[in-house]
Amino acid sequence: MSGLGFSSFSQERTIEDYIKMGTDNSPLLKDFNNQILINKLDSAIIRANYKPLVGANSTGTYAPIIRGYGYDLAISNGKTFSSLVSVNQSLLGRSRMNTALRGIGLLSDSVTNAVQRSQQDIRRNIISQYISAYASQKQVEFDQTVHQLLKKEETVLKKLTQSNVYRQTDYLTFLVTLQQQELLMKQNQIIASNNIAILNYLSGIISTDSVKLIEPKLNLNAAQQLNSSIFLQQFQLDSLRIQNSRRVIDLNYQPRVGVYADGGYNSSFIQKAYKNVGVSAGFTISIPLYDGNQRKLQYNKLDIRERTRSTYRDYFLVQYQQQLSQLRQQLQQQESLFDKINEQIRFTESLITVDGKLLQTGNITIADYILAIRNYLDSQSLLRQTNITRLELINQLNYWNQ
């Protein structure tokens, strides 16, 4: 056969093969996974910030007085040197730490939700393209079968024309039909090749090898509880993040208490420098009193964010329910066509068989035989298209049912 040579494939692949390669090769999913790792590191940094902070500091100054000119010794002490180890610890900070960790956790949950939705997008897009590619391969296989049938009848018709059973114009009319079918077959081969290339592109595969696609087996998944939907979870996470932001604002208006201590050597060398080794300790308290009513303004901002979130959520729920209802209705309508289409195919197959026998005896016109073939082709095309539409609808329902 000319063209792609679908009769010999280098390998076979299933729909799950492409889905796995698509998810494994996705840079977006790798990015999300790296974001989750970064969030874990941010959580560790937050915990570290609320542990005692220990530091070592050393400073030395020399302020000479030359010919009576120089800094006042009462201020500069002439020369100083210090080498201290200090410890700082925030008190009453566990609530702040837990709130900060909660914010990081919610951010990680949002990224995890984005991973799930991206996986769903990849799965849906690859399945959709796989269905198209598989259907185009089946179309080429069907074209081959029809071409073999027409070539066989062309040989018979040519002999009958030479025997004056049919006119030369009848034979030429049939020959034009055969040539048209050959052109259509080559065109469908190109379409099939392009569909495979697009499927490889979506899956991150670099290959030009011929591949035979195994028939996709798609089952309609049971619908999830609405509250468990990955598409609704983001709205729930957004609500929790707003609540956590409100908690952060409240904590910013609570007193801050800390203690510190240091120890080491600190001397001006004025007297008994060898005895200037010691320690010190203290505490800090910070109480916010007035900031221009910023707290209320920040609350107002969060209220606006919450109203926006609720508006998007309500709108999504209406569209979600409506889309599922439409998809289910369309699926039922498509499935109701199969019995009628199969009955039509059986009728046209029988008609072609009878007409083929009549053709060999010259008891049927070429126009009637060509019409029977076209009716058969149209019925088969309608069956494939209906099946493609059914699989696409199942793919869409499974996408939204997660």
Structure report:
By secondary structure, this protein is α+β, with helices and mostly antiparallel strands. It has two domains: 11-50 and 93-253 and 291-400, Outer membrane efflux proteins (OEP), CATH 1.20.1600; 55-91 and 258-287. 66% of the residues lie in helices and 13% in strands. The chain has nine helices and six strands. It has helices at 15-25, 27-49, 73-76, 94-162, 168-203, 230-252, 294-335, 338-361, 366-400, and strands at residues 11-13, 53-62, 79-91, 211-213, 256-267, 277-286. A four-stranded antiparallel sheet has the order 2-3-5-6, with no helix packed on it. A two-stranded parallel ribbon has the order 1-4. The longest helix is centred in the first third of the chain and has 69 residues, at 94-162.
SS-derived structural category: alpha+beta
Order of helices and strands: EHHEHEHHEHEEHHH
Please summarize the sheet with the most strands. 4 strands, antiparallel
Net shape: elongated
Outline of the structure:
The protein is of the alpha+beta class. It is built from 9 helices and 6 strands; from the N terminus they run βααβαβααβαββααα. The protein is 66% helix and 13% strand.
Write the layout of secondary structure elements.
Elements: E1 11-13, H1 15-25, H2 27-49, E2 53-62, H3 73-76, E3 79-91, H4 94-162, H5 168-203, E4 211-213, H6 230-252, E5 256-267, E6 277-286, H7 294-335, H8 338-361, H9 366-400
Parallel strand pairs: 1-4
Antiparallel strand pairs: 2-3, 3-5, 5-6
Helix pairs in contact: 1-4, 1-5, 2-4, 4-5, 4-6, 4-8, 4-9, 6-7, 7-9, 8-9
